[in-house]
Write a structure and sequence with these properties.
By secondary structure, this protein is an alpha/beta fold. It has a domain at about 170-280. The chain has 19 helices and seven strands. The chain has helices at about 15-20, 30-40, 50-60, 75-80, 95-110, 115-120, 130-135, 145-150, 170-185, 200-210, 220-225, 235-245, 255-265, 275-280, 300-305, 315-320, 345-355, 380-385, 390-400; strands at about 65-70, 85-90, 310-315, 330-335, 355-365, 385-390, 405-415. The protein has a seven-stranded mixed sheet with strand order 3-2-1-4-5-7-6. β1, α4 (about 75-80) and β2 (about 85-90) form a beta-alpha-beta unit. α5 (about 95-110) packs across α8 (about 145-150). The longest helix has 16 residues, at about 95-110.
Length: about 425
Protein backbone atom coordinates (compact mmCIF):
# COMPACT_ATOMS: atom_id res chain seq x y z
CA UNK A 1 0.00 0.00 0.00
CA UNK A 2 1.15 3.54 -0.77
CA UNK A 3 0.55 5.83 2.16
CA UNK A 4 0.36 9.58 2.34
CA UNK A 5 3.38 10.59 4.40
CA UNK A 6 2.71 11.06 8.13
CA UNK A 7 3.21 14.46 9.70
CA UNK A 8 4.84 14.90 13.10
CA UNK A 9 2.88 16.93 15.62
CA UNK A 10 -0.22 16.47 13.50
CA UNK A 11 -2.82 16.79 16.25
CA UNK A 12 -1.24 19.68 18.12
CA UNK A 13 -2.53 23.12 17.25
CA UNK A 14 0.13 25.17 19.04
CA UNK A 15 1.60 26.40 15.74
CA UNK A 16 -1.69 28.04 14.81
CA UNK A 17 -2.06 29.67 18.22
CA UNK A 18 1.49 31.00 18.11
CA UNK A 19 0.82 32.61 14.73
CA UNK A 20 -2.36 34.32 15.93
CA UNK A 21 -1.33 35.77 19.29
CA UNK A 22 0.35 39.17 19.07
CA UNK A 23 -0.98 41.06 22.13
CA UNK A 24 -1.01 40.64 25.90
CA UNK A 25 -3.59 38.07 27.11
CA UNK A 26 -5.69 40.49 29.18
CA UNK A 27 -5.72 43.35 26.68
CA UNK A 28 -8.81 43.88 24.52
CA UNK A 29 -6.79 42.93 21.46
CA UNK A 30 -5.35 39.88 23.17
CA UNK A 31 -8.75 38.63 24.32
CA UNK A 32 -10.10 39.07 20.80
CA UNK A 33 -7.17 37.14 19.33
CA UNK A 34 -7.65 34.29 21.79
CA UNK A 35 -11.36 34.04 21.06
CA UNK A 36 -10.59 33.90 17.35
CA UNK A 37 -7.90 31.28 17.99
CA UNK A 38 -10.38 29.14 19.91
CA UNK A 39 -12.92 29.31 17.08
CA UNK A 40 -10.25 28.76 14.41
CA UNK A 41 -8.82 25.66 16.10
CA UNK A 42 -11.41 23.32 14.55
CA UNK A 43 -12.29 22.73 10.92
CA UNK A 44 -12.82 26.17 9.35
CA UNK A 45 -13.03 25.72 5.59
CA UNK A 46 -14.42 22.55 4.03
CA UNK A 47 -14.22 24.55 0.78
CA UNK A 48 -11.52 27.08 0.03
CA UNK A 49 -12.88 30.57 -0.78
CA UNK A 50 -10.38 31.68 -3.40
CA UNK A 51 -11.16 31.24 -7.10
CA UNK A 52 -8.75 28.66 -8.60
CA UNK A 53 -9.36 29.86 -12.16
CA UNK A 54 -8.08 33.30 -11.17
CA UNK A 55 -5.14 31.70 -9.35
CA UNK A 56 -4.05 29.63 -12.35
CA UNK A 57 -4.37 32.58 -14.73
CA UNK A 58 -2.33 34.79 -12.41
CA UNK A 59 0.38 32.18 -11.99
CA UNK A 60 0.42 31.35 -15.72
CA UNK A 61 0.58 27.84 -14.32
CA UNK A 62 2.34 25.33 -16.55
CA UNK A 63 3.46 21.72 -16.51
CA UNK A 64 6.50 21.20 -14.33
CA UNK A 65 6.09 24.23 -12.07
CA UNK A 66 7.03 23.72 -8.42
CA UNK A 67 4.34 25.23 -6.19
CA UNK A 68 4.10 26.08 -2.51
CA UNK A 69 0.56 26.87 -1.36
CA UNK A 70 -1.48 27.21 1.81
CA UNK A 71 -3.98 24.34 1.95
CA UNK A 72 -7.25 25.57 3.50
CA UNK A 73 -10.01 23.28 2.18
CA UNK A 74 -7.79 21.71 -0.47
CA UNK A 75 -9.93 22.54 -3.52
CA UNK A 76 -7.41 24.84 -5.19
CA UNK A 77 -4.44 22.56 -4.66
CA UNK A 78 -6.34 19.85 -6.54
CA UNK A 79 -7.36 22.29 -9.27
CA UNK A 80 -3.68 23.18 -9.79
CA UNK A 81 -2.99 19.51 -10.48
CA UNK A 82 -5.08 19.78 -13.64
CA UNK A 83 -2.10 21.69 -15.12
CA UNK A 84 0.26 18.86 -14.11
CA UNK A 85 2.82 20.85 -12.12
CA UNK A 86 6.07 19.21 -11.11
CA UNK A 87 5.23 19.32 -7.40
CA UNK A 88 2.95 20.97 -4.87
CA UNK A 89 3.91 21.51 -1.24
CA UNK A 90 0.75 22.20 0.76
CA UNK A 91 1.13 23.85 4.16
CA UNK A 92 -1.40 24.69 6.83
CA UNK A 93 -1.20 25.48 10.54
CA UNK A 94 -4.64 23.99 11.18
CA UNK A 95 -4.42 20.17 11.62
CA UNK A 96 -8.08 19.78 10.61
CA UNK A 97 -7.25 21.23 7.20
CA UNK A 98 -4.25 18.90 6.97
CA UNK A 99 -6.53 15.90 7.49
CA UNK A 100 -9.05 17.15 4.93
CA UNK A 101 -6.38 17.80 2.31
CA UNK A 102 -4.96 14.33 2.76
CA UNK A 103 -8.36 12.70 2.48
CA UNK A 104 -9.20 14.60 -0.70
CA UNK A 105 -5.90 13.58 -2.28
CA UNK A 106 -6.51 9.97 -1.30
CA UNK A 107 -9.96 10.12 -2.89
CA UNK A 108 -8.46 10.99 -6.26
CA UNK A 109 -5.72 8.42 -5.93
CA UNK A 110 -7.80 5.47 -4.78
CA UNK A 111 -11.51 5.85 -5.59
CA UNK A 112 -12.41 3.84 -8.71
CA UNK A 113 -13.78 6.61 -10.95
CA UNK A 114 -14.81 10.25 -11.32
CA UNK A 115 -18.41 9.57 -10.29
CA UNK A 116 -17.32 8.20 -6.92
CA UNK A 117 -15.02 11.18 -6.32
CA UNK A 118 -17.91 13.57 -6.98
CA UNK A 119 -20.22 11.51 -4.81
CA UNK A 120 -17.86 11.67 -1.86
CA UNK A 121 -16.59 15.25 -2.16
CA UNK A 122 -19.52 17.26 -3.54
CA UNK A 123 -21.70 17.16 -0.40
CA UNK A 124 -24.09 14.68 -1.99
CA UNK A 125 -25.67 13.59 1.33
CA UNK A 126 -25.34 9.94 0.33
CA UNK A 127 -25.23 7.68 3.39
CA UNK A 128 -23.32 5.10 1.35
CA UNK A 129 -20.33 7.44 1.12
CA UNK A 130 -18.89 5.87 4.23
CA UNK A 131 -18.53 2.63 2.30
CA UNK A 132 -16.45 4.36 -0.35
CA UNK A 133 -14.21 5.71 2.38
CA UNK A 134 -13.79 2.40 4.19
CA UNK A 135 -13.17 0.32 1.07
CA UNK A 136 -11.00 2.64 -1.01
CA UNK A 137 -9.47 5.36 1.20
CA UNK A 138 -9.04 4.20 4.80
CA UNK A 139 -6.44 1.52 4.00
CA UNK A 140 -4.15 4.10 2.38
CA UNK A 141 -4.20 6.85 5.01
CA UNK A 142 -1.23 7.39 7.29
CA UNK A 143 -1.75 6.64 10.97
CA UNK A 144 -2.39 10.26 12.05
CA UNK A 145 -4.92 10.94 9.34
CA UNK A 146 -6.65 7.62 9.95
CA UNK A 147 -6.89 8.41 13.67
CA UNK A 148 -8.33 11.83 12.91
CA UNK A 149 -11.17 10.59 10.68
CA UNK A 150 -11.91 7.53 12.82
CA UNK A 151 -12.22 9.52 16.05
CA UNK A 152 -15.72 9.49 17.57
CA UNK A 153 -17.45 12.59 18.86
CA UNK A 154 -19.81 13.03 21.77
CA UNK A 155 -22.63 11.74 19.57
CA UNK A 156 -20.77 8.45 19.11
CA UNK A 157 -20.25 9.02 15.37
CA UNK A 158 -16.90 9.01 13.65
CA UNK A 159 -15.65 12.27 12.17
CA UNK A 160 -15.72 10.73 8.71
CA UNK A 161 -19.50 10.38 8.95
CA UNK A 162 -19.66 14.03 7.88
CA UNK A 163 -19.31 12.73 4.30
CA UNK A 164 -22.67 10.98 4.67
CA UNK A 165 -24.22 14.44 4.73
CA UNK A 166 -23.24 17.80 3.26
CA UNK A 167 -19.75 18.45 4.64
CA UNK A 168 -19.92 22.04 3.36
CA UNK A 169 -22.54 22.84 5.98
CA UNK A 170 -20.01 21.98 8.68
CA UNK A 171 -16.90 23.73 9.89
CA UNK A 172 -16.73 27.29 11.15
CA UNK A 173 -17.62 28.83 7.78
CA UNK A 174 -20.50 26.43 7.20
CA UNK A 175 -22.01 27.34 10.56
CA UNK A 176 -21.46 31.04 9.88
CA UNK A 177 -23.39 30.77 6.61
CA UNK A 178 -26.16 28.89 8.43
CA UNK A 179 -26.36 31.71 10.99
CA UNK A 180 -26.61 34.24 8.17
CA UNK A 181 -29.52 32.32 6.70
CA UNK A 182 -31.21 32.23 10.10
CA UNK A 183 -30.85 35.98 10.59
CA UNK A 184 -32.25 36.58 7.11
CA UNK A 185 -35.26 34.35 7.90
CA UNK A 186 -35.91 36.33 11.08
CA UNK A 187 -36.40 39.28 8.74
CA UNK A 188 -38.65 37.33 6.38
CA UNK A 189 -36.03 36.56 3.69
CA UNK A 190 -35.19 33.09 2.34
CA UNK A 191 -31.75 33.36 0.77
CA UNK A 192 -32.31 29.96 -0.89
CA UNK A 193 -34.83 31.62 -3.19
CA UNK A 194 -31.88 32.98 -5.16
CA UNK A 195 -31.87 29.57 -6.90
CA UNK A 196 -34.90 30.69 -8.92
CA UNK A 197 -32.88 33.42 -10.66
CA UNK A 198 -32.46 32.72 -14.37
CA UNK A 199 -30.39 35.73 -15.40
CA UNK A 200 -28.06 38.38 -14.07
CA UNK A 201 -31.06 40.70 -14.08
CA UNK A 202 -32.96 38.30 -11.80
CA UNK A 203 -29.94 38.06 -9.52
CA UNK A 204 -29.67 41.84 -9.34
CA UNK A 205 -33.35 42.22 -8.51
CA UNK A 206 -33.12 39.59 -5.77
CA UNK A 207 -30.14 41.35 -4.22
CA UNK A 208 -31.59 44.87 -4.45
CA UNK A 209 -35.03 43.99 -3.10
CA UNK A 210 -34.27 41.29 -0.54
CA UNK A 211 -30.61 41.20 0.51
CA UNK A 212 -29.42 44.81 0.41
CA UNK A 213 -32.14 46.12 2.78
CA UNK A 214 -30.96 43.66 5.45
CA UNK A 215 -27.83 45.72 6.01
CA UNK A 216 -29.93 48.62 7.29
CA UNK A 217 -31.58 46.47 9.97
CA UNK A 218 -30.59 47.36 13.56
CA UNK A 219 -29.81 43.74 14.46
CA UNK A 220 -27.37 43.30 11.57
CA UNK A 221 -25.72 46.65 12.23
CA UNK A 222 -25.34 45.69 15.90
CA UNK A 223 -23.81 42.32 15.04
CA UNK A 224 -21.41 43.58 12.38
CA UNK A 225 -20.12 46.32 14.70
CA UNK A 226 -18.31 43.58 16.66
CA UNK A 227 -15.05 41.98 15.60
CA UNK A 228 -16.27 38.53 16.60
CA UNK A 229 -19.07 38.77 14.03
CA UNK A 230 -16.64 37.90 11.24
CA UNK A 231 -14.67 35.19 13.02
CA UNK A 232 -16.97 32.70 11.30
CA UNK A 233 -15.59 33.84 7.94
CA UNK A 234 -12.09 33.13 9.20
CA UNK A 235 -11.42 36.87 9.46
CA UNK A 236 -9.18 37.61 12.47
CA UNK A 237 -9.21 40.86 14.47
CA UNK A 238 -6.40 42.36 12.37
CA UNK A 239 -8.41 41.92 9.16
CA UNK A 240 -11.57 43.32 10.77
CA UNK A 241 -9.72 46.49 11.72
CA UNK A 242 -8.42 46.81 8.17
CA UNK A 243 -11.91 46.44 6.72
CA UNK A 244 -13.46 48.87 9.20
CA UNK A 245 -10.87 51.48 8.24
CA UNK A 246 -12.25 51.45 4.69
CA UNK A 247 -15.63 52.78 5.83
CA UNK A 248 -16.37 56.44 6.47
CA UNK A 249 -18.10 55.68 9.78
CA UNK A 250 -15.99 52.71 10.84
CA UNK A 251 -18.85 50.28 10.25
CA UNK A 252 -18.14 47.08 8.40
CA UNK A 253 -21.74 46.69 7.16
CA UNK A 254 -21.23 48.72 3.94
CA UNK A 255 -18.12 46.69 3.10
CA UNK A 256 -19.97 43.42 3.58
CA UNK A 257 -22.88 44.68 1.49
CA UNK A 258 -20.54 45.60 -1.36
CA UNK A 259 -18.75 42.23 -1.30
CA UNK A 260 -22.03 40.32 -1.16
CA UNK A 261 -23.32 42.39 -4.08
CA UNK A 262 -20.39 41.21 -6.21
CA UNK A 263 -21.04 37.60 -5.23
CA UNK A 264 -24.74 37.87 -6.01
CA UNK A 265 -24.76 40.06 -9.10
CA UNK A 266 -21.50 40.04 -11.06
CA UNK A 267 -21.39 36.43 -12.31
CA UNK A 268 -24.09 34.17 -13.78
CA UNK A 269 -25.33 31.85 -11.07
CA UNK A 270 -24.72 28.82 -13.27
CA UNK A 271 -21.00 29.64 -13.32
CA UNK A 272 -20.46 30.55 -9.68
CA UNK A 273 -20.40 27.68 -7.21
CA UNK A 274 -19.31 30.12 -4.49
CA UNK A 275 -22.69 31.82 -4.77
CA UNK A 276 -24.43 28.43 -4.55
CA UNK A 277 -22.67 27.70 -1.28
CA UNK A 278 -23.47 31.14 0.14
CA UNK A 279 -27.12 31.35 -0.87
CA UNK A 280 -28.26 27.74 -1.31
CA UNK A 281 -25.76 26.09 1.06
CA UNK A 282 -24.92 23.42 -1.50
CA UNK A 283 -23.34 22.92 -4.90
CA UNK A 284 -25.54 23.13 -8.02
CA UNK A 285 -27.00 20.00 -9.55
CA UNK A 286 -25.85 19.18 -13.10
CA UNK A 287 -28.79 20.97 -14.66
CA UNK A 288 -28.25 24.04 -12.44
CA UNK A 289 -24.57 24.86 -12.89
CA UNK A 290 -20.95 23.79 -12.62
CA UNK A 291 -19.06 22.19 -9.77
CA UNK A 292 -15.67 23.45 -8.50
CA UNK A 293 -12.82 23.08 -10.99
CA UNK A 294 -11.31 20.03 -9.31
CA UNK A 295 -14.60 18.10 -9.53
CA UNK A 296 -15.28 18.81 -13.20
CA UNK A 297 -15.00 15.68 -15.38
CA UNK A 298 -12.56 17.12 -17.93
CA UNK A 299 -9.91 17.52 -15.22
CA UNK A 300 -10.31 14.16 -13.49
CA UNK A 301 -7.66 12.14 -15.33
CA UNK A 302 -4.97 14.83 -15.04
CA UNK A 303 -5.61 15.33 -11.32
CA UNK A 304 -5.62 11.61 -10.62
CA UNK A 305 -2.39 11.11 -12.56
CA UNK A 306 -0.66 13.95 -10.71
CA UNK A 307 -1.99 13.37 -7.18
CA UNK A 308 1.23 11.71 -6.02
CA UNK A 309 3.10 14.98 -6.68
CA UNK A 310 1.56 16.60 -3.58
CA UNK A 311 3.16 16.69 -0.14
CA UNK A 312 1.15 18.03 2.81
CA UNK A 313 2.92 19.71 5.73
CA UNK A 314 1.67 20.89 9.12
CA UNK A 315 3.84 23.98 9.32
CA UNK A 316 4.10 27.57 8.15
CA UNK A 317 5.14 28.68 4.69
CA UNK A 318 8.20 30.39 6.18
CA UNK A 319 9.40 27.23 7.94
CA UNK A 320 8.82 25.07 4.88
CA UNK A 321 10.74 27.43 2.61
CA UNK A 322 13.59 27.69 5.11
CA UNK A 323 14.27 24.00 4.55
CA UNK A 324 14.32 24.29 0.74
CA UNK A 325 17.36 25.00 -1.44
CA UNK A 326 17.78 28.33 -3.18
CA UNK A 327 15.96 28.79 -6.47
CA UNK A 328 13.75 25.72 -6.02
CA UNK A 329 10.23 27.25 -6.11
CA UNK A 330 8.35 28.62 -9.14
CA UNK A 331 4.99 29.66 -7.67
CA UNK A 332 3.85 30.63 -4.14
CA UNK A 333 0.18 31.00 -3.13
CA UNK A 334 -0.33 32.82 0.18
CA UNK A 335 -4.14 33.23 0.23
CA UNK A 336 -4.81 36.06 2.72
CA UNK A 337 -2.37 34.89 5.39
CA UNK A 338 -0.26 38.05 5.26
CA UNK A 339 -3.14 40.13 6.57
CA UNK A 340 -2.50 38.45 9.91
CA UNK A 341 1.23 39.08 10.02
CA UNK A 342 3.44 41.60 11.79
CA UNK A 343 6.17 43.44 9.87
CA UNK A 344 8.72 41.08 11.36
CA UNK A 345 6.80 38.01 10.20
CA UNK A 346 6.36 39.49 6.71
CA UNK A 347 10.07 40.17 6.44
CA UNK A 348 10.96 36.65 7.53
CA UNK A 349 8.50 35.17 5.03
CA UNK A 350 9.68 37.25 2.07
CA UNK A 351 13.32 36.66 2.93
CA UNK A 352 12.70 32.94 2.40
CA UNK A 353 10.44 33.48 -0.62
CA UNK A 354 13.14 35.60 -2.29
CA UNK A 355 15.91 33.11 -1.49
CA UNK A 356 14.01 30.07 -2.78
CA UNK A 357 12.36 31.76 -5.78
CA UNK A 358 13.53 30.53 -9.18
CA UNK A 359 14.05 33.07 -11.99
CA UNK A 360 10.64 34.40 -13.06
CA UNK A 361 8.90 33.02 -9.96
CA UNK A 362 5.51 34.46 -9.07
CA UNK A 363 3.76 35.03 -5.75
CA UNK A 364 0.01 35.59 -5.56
CA UNK A 365 -2.13 36.56 -2.59
CA UNK A 366 -5.35 38.27 -1.55
CA UNK A 367 -6.06 41.01 0.95
CA UNK A 368 -9.09 42.18 2.88
CA UNK A 369 -8.42 45.75 1.75
CA UNK A 370 -7.67 46.75 -1.83
CA UNK A 371 -3.99 47.66 -1.41
CA UNK A 372 -1.08 45.26 -1.11
CA UNK A 373 0.09 44.63 2.45
CA UNK A 374 3.75 44.82 1.40
CA UNK A 375 4.05 48.53 0.62
CA UNK A 376 5.90 50.33 3.38
CA UNK A 377 6.30 47.17 5.44
CA UNK A 378 9.07 45.20 3.71
CA UNK A 379 12.68 46.40 3.57
CA UNK A 380 13.46 47.96 0.20
CA UNK A 381 16.23 45.40 -0.31
CA UNK A 382 13.55 42.70 -0.44
CA UNK A 383 10.73 44.49 -2.21
CA UNK A 384 13.06 45.77 -4.93
CA UNK A 385 13.72 42.17 -5.98
CA UNK A 386 10.10 41.89 -7.14
CA UNK A 387 7.87 43.52 -9.76
CA UNK A 388 4.24 44.19 -8.90
CA UNK A 389 1.82 43.65 -11.80
CA UNK A 390 -0.85 46.12 -10.74
CA UNK A 391 -2.89 46.11 -13.95
CA UNK A 392 -3.11 42.33 -14.18
CA UNK A 393 -3.85 42.09 -10.46
CA UNK A 394 -6.75 44.53 -10.71
CA UNK A 395 -8.16 42.84 -13.81
CA UNK A 396 -8.12 39.39 -12.23
CA UNK A 397 -9.59 40.71 -8.99
CA UNK A 398 -12.74 41.66 -10.90
CA UNK A 399 -12.95 38.05 -12.18
CA UNK A 400 -12.69 36.40 -8.75
CA UNK A 401 -16.05 34.69 -8.26
CA UNK A 402 -15.61 34.22 -4.50
CA UNK A 403 -15.94 38.01 -4.23
CA UNK A 404 -15.01 38.31 -0.55
CA UNK A 405 -11.61 40.00 -0.86
CA UNK A 406 -10.78 43.60 -1.59
CA UNK A 407 -7.52 42.99 -3.45
CA UNK A 408 -5.73 40.37 -5.52
CA UNK A 409 -1.98 40.75 -6.05
CA UNK A 410 0.70 39.31 -8.34
CA UNK A 411 4.44 39.72 -7.77
CA UNK A 412 7.13 38.42 -10.14
CA UNK A 413 10.79 38.05 -9.28
CA UNK A 414 13.09 40.39 -11.18
CA UNK A 415 15.98 39.00 -13.18
CA UNK A 416 19.42 39.27 -11.73
Amino acid sequence: MTEIAPDAGYHRNTKLKDALLQHAPLSAEGLSERLFGLMFSGLVYAQIWEDPEVDMAAMDLMEGHRIVTIGSGGCNMLAYLSRQPGSIDVVDLNPNHIALNKLKIAAFRHLPDHASVVRLLSGSEDRANIQLYERHILPYLDASTRTYWQKRGLNGKRRVSVFNRNIYRTGLLGRFIALGHLIAKLHGIRLEDMAAARSLRDQRQFFDTRIAPLFDKPLIRFITARKSSLFGLGIPPQQYDELASLSDNGSIAPILRHRLEKLACHFPLRENYFAWQAFMRRYPRPEEGVLPTYLQPQHYEAIRASADRVNVHHESVTDLLAAKPAGSVDRVVLLDAQDWMTDQQLTALWTEITRTAAPGARVIFRTAAECSVLDGRLPASLLDRWTYDGDRSAALNTQDRSAIYGGFHIYEKREG
